[in-house]
Amino acid sequence: MALQSDLHKERVERRVKEQLPRLDPVALDELGMTQAECEDLERKLRGYIVLPGMPDYPAAAAPHAAPRWPAFPQLIAFCETPSDVRICLALAREKALWAVPRSGRHSLANYSTCSGMIIDVSLMNGISVDPIELTARVGAGANFGLLNAVLDGYGLHVPGGTCADVGVAGFMQGGGYGLTSRRFGINSDCVLAVTMMLADGTIVVADAERERDLWWAVRGGTGNQFGILLDITFKLVELPSVWSFELRWTVEDAPAALDAIQRGYMRDADNADVGYLVVMATIDSEPCLLMLGLYSGDPADGMRALRPLMDVGKPTFRDDTGTYNTLNDAVLAVLPGPGLPTTMEAKRSGYIATPVGVEGWKTLVDYFATTPNPYNIMVLEPYGAAPTAYPRGDSAFIHREVDCDFFVDSFWDPTWPDCDEETALTWLAGFFGVVQPFLNGEMYQNYPVRDLPDYREQYWGDAFPELLRIKQHYDPAGFFHFEQSITPPPPPS
Ligand SMILES: Cc1cc2nc3c(=O)[nH]c(=O)nc-3n(C[C@H](O)[C@H](O)[C@H](O)COP(=O)(O)OP(=O)(O)OC[C@H]3O[C@@H](n4cnc5c(N)ncnc54)[C@H](O)[C@@H]3O)c2cc1C
User: Fold this and answer.
1) Torsion sign across C-alpha atoms 407, 301, 321, 137
2) 170 Cα to the center of ligand 1, angstroms
3) End-to-end Cα separation, the chain, in angstroms
4) Beta strand 75-78 with 117-120: parallel, antiparallel or unpaired?
5) Which residues lie across from 196 on neighbouring strands?
6) Would you say 314 and 288 are in contact if contact means Cβ atoms under 8 Å apart?
7) What is the whole-number distance in angstroms between the Cα of residue 217 and the centre of ligand 1?
8) Is residue 243 a contact partner of residue 154, using CB atoms and an 8 Å limit?
9) Which of 84, 119, 146, 171 for a ligand 1 pocket mutation test, highest count of atoms within 8 Å of Cβ?
10) Least confident of 101-110, 262-271, 352-361, 418-427
11) What is the crossing angle of helices 299-310 and 254-264, to 10°?
């Protein structure tokens, strides 16, 4: 019987023979590597490499959706072990290749791709749960579909996002908001420790005791700043079941409902168990307001908590009971999605930190009704409760004293006659003109906007000088870099 190691060797040799027979000379030239060097790299890795011209290159290079900023990496390395990552980092240093890490591919600004090498960690997705200590050590390549499915088996939970394909690595490093965050916190607030490989291949473990400044910085400082995250240890909570609910108002009732939600269910810690999103969407050709949520307590208490909202206008109501893993997906299934591989998305966000009032909400609802396609959505992610209670200075995630994150998704597609890129972006800019008076100037770093001159201030505010010090300590040569790196601000012009 063949041993595991023999099987691996056989697989590698087959791959070298079948996949790397004659690499494109132009691609090799651009990469600065020979055919023999590529074959040698393939043999050294537990994972594998993909280069331009190989049949699986298009799929290996693609972000999660049609890219707004396409890039053509010269080498994609699918790493399976920390040694693979170290080999890739050494190669990038030797060949002076621009290298970026990639996990779930969901960067909204396509920051996990580049013209050099992608160090993909998606195969490093092992998860081990300690149900006694209530912790989980999660490989940086895991996504929330996998993590939630594993935790579901134990009745345990850590707040995650609304999309199963989002990677834990990118999500956590930018904060990470989900339907249970009001009760259990921003995802990065639940991190006990991280394991990270620095540019020189050193592995560091950072937690509240060791490398505390790195632990502080990684939780909100965003991905690709300090090193390559290998795994995250989360503190878990017990959550065997949740109660999901949907309240739906007509567009006429929407301003009063939004006002009632802002007054009673955002900063208010009394309703901390009510986790939810508020969405203006177009359903059955009609704009409407939805409150889509998960209650992490007894359903009867949940009904009582929502009672005041039932008297605002005439909402329709649906509910269900189940596990977080099933209902987190199901409660959002009502939202329309373009579902086309060619559709582009522009997202913009800002934090609301003052009362908007019924009149103010009406201006936003009225603006939403001018949407140039039926897929655009306006969303509120409410804070207060646990996100606000977490001490502001204890991590690099600064957005604490706010009512909610406000974001708008604006889509366009080449097959839509009435909504091209210019229409979609103009509509989005117009929306932010209307909401501007209510925003506090901060922006959620997990929804990055490329052309943002003051991203340092908007993502990190007064945490930035400390982040810069930590960046310069752990990555003094600026090996990890992209368009929104932690670098000294440019001198005033
Ligand atoms: C459809 C969709 C739904 C979303 N839903 C939510 C939501 O509900 N809540 C929320 O808060 N956010 C949400 N987001 C935003 C999401 O949190 C960010 O886009 C996040 O950065 C994605 O992480 P990723 O690992 O999937 O992405 P990637 O594109 O792989 O990585 C994102 C960034 O992290 C870096 N990175 C990746 N892996 C590593 C690593 N191992 N070490 C160091 N750096 C690394 C990359 O270089 C890149 O800069 C959503 C985004 C999309 C597209």
Assistant:
1) positive
2) 4
3) 70
4) parallel
5) 204, 229
6) no
7) 16
8) no
9) 171
10) 262-271
11) 130
Which two structure tokens, joined as six digits, stand for 419? 């909504």
What local confidence, expressed as pLDDT, does residue 138 receive? 98
Average pLDDT over residues 297-302: 95
Phi-psi region of 23 (alpha: psi -120 to 50; beta: other; left: phi over 0): beta
Contact 295, 274 (CB under 8 A): yes
Beta bridge partners of residue 156, listed in sequence order: 238
Q: Give which of 169, 161, 221, 175 is closest to 196, Cα–Cα.
A: 169
Residue indicated by tokens 């997705």: 125
- Ligand 1: residue of 86, 103, 332 to mutate (most ligand atoms within 8 A of CB) is 103
Q: Domains in the chain, start-ordered, CATH in brackets?
A: 13-120 (3.30.465.10), 127-238 (3.30.465.10), 242-438 (3.40.462.20)
Tokens 């960046």 locate to 471
Tokens of 324: 């977080």
Question: For 3-17, 164-178, 180-194, 233-247, which range has the lowest pLDDT when averaged over its residues?
Answer: 3-17
Quick check: 103 and 111 in contact, CB under 8 A? no
Helix/strand/coil (H/E/C) assignment for every residue in the chain: CCCHHHHHHHHHHHHHHHHCCCCCHHHHHHHCCCHHHHHHHHHHCCCEEECCCCCCHHHHHCCCCCCCCCCCCCEEEECCCHHHHHHHHHHHHHHCCCEEEECCCCCCCCCCCCCCEEEECCCCCCEEEECCCCEEEEECCCEHHHHHHHHHHHCEECCCCCCCCCEHHHHHHCCCCCCCHHHHCCHHHHEEEEEEECCCCCEEEEECCCCHHHHHHHCCCCCCCCCEEEEEEEECEECCCEEEEEEEEECCCHHHHHHHHHHHCCCCHHHCCEEEEEEEEEECCEEEEEEEEEECCCHHHHHHHHHHHHCCCCCEEEEEEECHHHHHHHCCCCCCCCCCCCCEEEEEEEEECCCCHHHHHHHHHHHHCCCCCCCCEEEEEECCHHHHHCCHHHCCCCCCCCCEEEEEEEEECCCCCCCCHHHHHHHHHHHHHHHHHHECCCCCCCCCCCCCCCHHHHHHHHHHHHHHHHHHHHCCCCCCCCCCCCCCCCCCC
Mutual angle of helices 82-95 and 35-44, in 10-degree steps: 160
Decide whether any atom of ligand 1 lies within 6 Å of the 163 Cβ.
yes
Six token digits for residue 149 = 């499915």
Ligand 1 atom 3: the closest Cα is on which residue?
Answer: 163
Would you state the pLDDT for residue 4?
66
